[in-house]
Amino acid sequence: MNRLVLALAVVILSGAACRATNAADAQAATVDSNNYVHGDFGPPRGDPIHAVLTNPPNVPAPTFRNYPAKVIVELEVIEKEMPISEGVTYTFWTFGGTVPGKFIRVRQGDTVELHLKNNPNNKMPHNIDLHGVTGPGGGAASTFTAPGHESQFTFKALNQGIYVYHCATAPVGMHIANGMYGLILIEPPEGLPPVDHEYYVMQGDFYTTGKYREKGLQPFDMEKAIDEKPTYVLFNGAEGSLTGDKALTAKTGQTVRIFVGNGGPNLVSSFHIIGEIFDRVQQEGGTHPQENVQTTLIPSGGAAIVQFHTEVPGSYVLVDHSIFRAFNKGALAILRVDGPENKTIYSGKEVDSVYLGDRSEPNLAAVTHATKAATAGNLTKDDQIKAGQQLFTGTCSVCHQVNGEGLPGVFPPLAKSRIIAADPKRPIQILLHGLTGKVVVNGKDYNSVMPPMSQLNDDEMANIITFVLNSWGNPGGRITTEEVAKARAEPAPAAAAGH
Ligand SMILES: [Cu+2]
Fold this sequence. Notes:
Elements: H1 3-21, E1 49-50, E2 70-85, E3 88-95, E4 104-107, E5 111-118, E6 129-130, E7 150-156, E8 161-166, H2 172-177, E9 181-187, E10 197-206, E11 216-217, H3 222-226, E12 232-235, E13 248-251, E14 255-264, E15 269-274, E16 278-282, E17 290-293, E18 295-298, E19 302-309, E20 314-320, H4 324-328, E21 332-338, H5 353-356, H6 365-376, H7 381-395, H8 397-400, H9 418-422, H10 426-433, E22 435-441, E23 444-450, H11 458-469, H12 481-489, H13 494-497
Parallel strand pairs: 1-2, 2-5, 3-11, 4-9, 10-14, 13-21
Antiparallel strand pairs: 2-3, 5-7, 6-8, 8-9, 10-12, 14-19, 15-18, 15-20, 16-17, 16-19, 20-21, 22-23
Helix pairs in contact: 6-7, 7-11, 11-12
The chain binds copper (II) ion (CU).
């Protein structure tokens, strides 16, 4: 193509782009030799606008603008201790006090003046790299900011889409692992189609020196991070941040759009909603949607826009379908849909505790209380029973049932179990090593497999067994953490492995 023809094509195509975006405003969109509209609709117009930023899971309202503006975005980095799981805290580094950071929403063609403040109480320098920026480092070099300082830089939002932003200060992996990421939406000029709900969910992997759910303030573990072995994989920075009272909500017959990001630093997300099909997915945040998707991959440092319509009331579970992450590392959130049943589409019965265990109930306060009491040296039997009851619900009730009656022929009863009465310490061995082969409980034969419950720590086992001993007509008594620890240190007795 010679230069003249190219110039002509530019004129014609930019005209087309104007009509496509907004006819009322004559906008100059530039076009390169591949005919890509770059989204430079000319200089900003009107008074500068202060962007309204939102905390997760909320999304700012659409810009409802048909002209390019100057938008001022003010972000403050705050380092602070927050819960990461029940009774567990972590020192997060945040953009605006939450993980993920504040949601930023602008329009393609806007000129964004970004101010980054580093709170004077912080200990580390920080910066910001926005994937929606065209320019070296995405803003990182221009925004390196020491505690108590502020930097600013300006960029034009040339490409529409949903983009991750993150801190890129060395050690970069550590800043991201501590929660320094968020999303910026660059709306197409005509805006996104209206929906009933827009939500902001972002996955991240976390590395603590203690084990999953080990109580207290947990420091960052660099070795685990390098080995890519996270202790937690979470939506919105904490286990339970989107369950129970904090679940996302919708009504039947509504359209829901979720901006789903993945901050990483390491893992790729297999994002799925149990019981829903995405009608539309903008994979990797790109422009052309895929339709009728079950699970969408979200790269570390990437994002997607998923959209679906709700038909049937109930609890829908957002998971990373690398499923151990959901049930053993925390990557689980709930969307609660209210409204009338629709039996022609689904016959009924809730996603229940058998599926979710204690994960649908963020309230494990009795467990936290028992841990604190144990540390302080004043743990009572009653504390143990209450903590044990919550843990039993999440761990044992799926087989032995909430009332301890078991299921005939499949799972033996723990209620009035003569096996337990004969030796109240025997359950320690059963939990540590599992139980297989024929066993007679209260005159009935069972020949099945109980897997070891070795994911439970010593405290948890002691509390569960104490709860069992004091429930459903069992003989009472108490098992201590020390007894469990001692048994764990010993080799498995042959008797516990089978009969
Ligand atoms: Cu940082």
